[in-house]
Each structure stands twice: as C-alpha cells, then as structure tokens.
Amino acid sequence: MTDDKTIIASVNTESQVTDIKSSPVLLQYDGGGAGKRFLLNQNPIIIGRKAEKSQIWIDDASVSREHCRIEIVDKDVTAMDLGSLNHTYINDRIIESTTKLVHSDMLRVGNVRLRYFAHGNADQLLVDRIYRIAVMDRMLNIFRKEYLLEKLEEEFSNSKSQESDFSLAFLDLDKFKSVNDTYGHDAGDFVLKQTCSVIRKVTPAHYLFGRYGGEELLILMPKTNIQVAHEFCELIRHSIETEVYQYQDTVIPVTISIGVSYSDKTMLSSLDLIKSADNYVYQSKRTGRNKVSSPASPSTA
User: Fold this and answer.
1) Is the C-alpha dihedral spanning 255, 272, 135, 232 positive or negative?
2) pLDDT tens digits for range 191-240
3) How many CB atoms lie within 10 A of CB 82?
4) I need a labelling partner for 109 at 20 to 30 A (CA). Which of 16, 36, 93, 184 fits?
C-alpha cells in the first residue's frame, strides 16, 4: 500500500465555480505552493510564514512571520506591509502604505509572487484552469498526491501548534486488481471514477480528498476527532457498498477498506499519520475487507 488555515477549494466542482465567481482571488506563482488559489473571503487576511497567525500561510524563508495584511472595504481590496524584512511589492514597487489592488496586479511577498484577480472578472476562468492543472487529478477530479501531501504537512503543523484535532483516512478499493483482470482496465477506470464521485458527494467542503496512488485515496479531516472521522468513513463505506456500478451490461461488485488515524502526541510527523492509517487499512483487509478500522473501532476503542 504505502511504498493546502484558508481553505483553498472544495473538491466539489460546483462549489469551486461558485466560490471563484463570488470572491477575489490570489493565485500563487512561485515556490512549492505554485498553483495554489486563495479565496479572499475573510477580512482581514494576514499573509505570512507563522501558520497560527496567518490566514494565507506561505512556508518560504523569504516571507516574514506576519508579512502583509489584505483588507476588503466595500469592493476595494487593499494590501499593507506589516514591517516585513523583505518588503511587500505590487508590480515590483515597494508599498509603504495601504495600497489598493487592481485586477491583474502582481503582489510579491519576499520572493513569492501572487497574481490578484478581481471579483467577477472573466479571467478567473483562466485562474481556475491553471489551478486545476497544478493540483487536480484530471481523470478523477480530486487532488493530486503532490498537492495533497503538501496540505497534509500544513494541516499537521497547524494541528500541533493549535493543539486541535486532525484525522486522516486511507482508503483502498478491495480486490481492485481482479476488477482490471476480469473486466479490463477501462472498467477499472470506470470504477475509480464512480467511487470518487460517490465520495465527493458526502465529503464536507473543508475536508481535502485526493489520490495517493493507483486505487489508494486519502482524506484529510482538519478539526475532526477520531470518533467523528470513523463515523464519516462508515458513511463512505456504506455508500460505496450500496452503489450500483454498472459497466456496460455488467454490474461490478465494489467495496472499500478504510483505515483512519489521528494526530496524537506520539505522532512526530505527517508521515507517522499516514503509516498509522495504512496499518489500519491492513487491519480492515485482514479481518474480511469492506471495513473501517481505527482507534475508535469497537475492538480497539
């Protein structure tokens, strides 16, 4: 099996379209977070490297802990430097006082550039396309592994610094190889797509759902305790078990095994969280498949 404070987007396509039309947007151009889309739907918004103080957290050494503040007054969006070491720029000019952002302005904090797109502008459709290419799995319409792991590191760090709940689910389709061997790889792709569609329908917007590899999926659940996470995954398991997977003239039986873990004091890194959830997947597989296993399971609680 094992070999992105500001919510960037829902995995629900309709929600993404609604959000992007209703809020101004910053699109990150540089660094490991290139392609991130930040909705300016809070007021004020601090951009900085201090996770617990910043609504837009940028983990880059050139960015100060609290670098600049974005404010929205009526329909105007302004930026103000907060005494940062490497300054805040708009279109390569240092700003020394509160400065209004205009559509297509390039905001730079340290060495990281973010393009500003104003409310209701048609160019935001291009933003969404760039964003999808950068972070979305095009076949499944869920987050790609690289982006998901980046957000996992961020949320894990946030949960530690804020001492808040954070749970993770590792999902693995049962006997997926036999689906490919019996019905063909096109049927396997169909099963994967439909499974992701089922999961998206029941997944809250503040959770992050993505592909880890092959038929392996991850769901990040910020501010969610293990009991709630376990119950949510039971809902997913039941939804998939009862879904009708009709490929051409054949109904393919599909179930899923799920492992759930949470960030406790023994977890030293986000990798520990994945390993723990993966171990619980093995437990689900060993005890008959089509199960959810976690510290909240009746046998382990």
Assistant:
1) positive
2) 999 999 999 999 988 899 999 999 999 999 999 999 999 999 999 999 99
3) 14
4) 16
